[in-house]
Amino acid sequence: TYVIAQPCVDVKDRACVEECPVDCIYEGRRSLYIHPDECVDCGACEPVCPVEAIFYEDDVPSPWAEYTRANAEFFDRIGSPGGAAKLGLIEHDHPLVAALPPNAQ
Ligand code: F3S
Ligand code: F3S
């Protein structure tokens, strides 16, 4: 899977959402999250993020290593909806993201 890391927080450019062929990039309050079971590893999202927040799971920079787990755990309460568009904005964040000060990136 691919992972959205800290640079997305409070930026939420959403260019990645337009690129994803399986609509597996979900919007939380302060960040977006990639569904690890729905992502087909096409890689289309990674180059379009203007703040370079997206990484292949093996390439997440070490300061942001916890974001691999955070992206997965974001879906603990949502499951696998099979598409982000129908959910729209999901009014919560992973605790890792929620705990960041404003504009922490
Ligand atoms: Fe975030 Fe970059 Fe997508 S800022 S919403 S990961 S384009
Ligand atoms: Fe979508 Fe990016 Fe995965 S475009 S399929 S989230 S690699």
UniProtKB/TrEMBL annotation:
Keyword Transmembrane helix appears in the UniProt entry: no
Lineage: superkingdom: Bacteria
Cofactor field: [3Fe-4S] cluster; [4Fe-4S] cluster
Key word Iron-sulfur present: yes
Molecular function in Gene Ontology: 3 iron, 4 sulfur cluster binding; 4 iron, 4 sulfur cluster binding; electron transfer activity; metal ion binding
PROSITE patterns: 4FE4S_FER_1, 4FE4S_FER_2
UniProt keyword terms in alphabetical order: 3Fe-4S, 4Fe-4S, Electron transport, Iron, Iron-sulfur, Metal-binding, Repeat, Transport
Coiled coil: none
Membrane-spanning ranges: none
Cofactor binding note: Binds 1 [3Fe-4S] cluster.
Domain 4Fe-4S ferredoxin-type: 30-59
NCBIfam families the record matches: FdxA_Actino (NF045480)
Role noted for this protein: Ferredoxins are iron-sulfur proteins that transfer electrons in a wide variety of metabolic reactions.
Protein name as annotated: Ferredoxin
Biological source species: Streptomyces tagetis
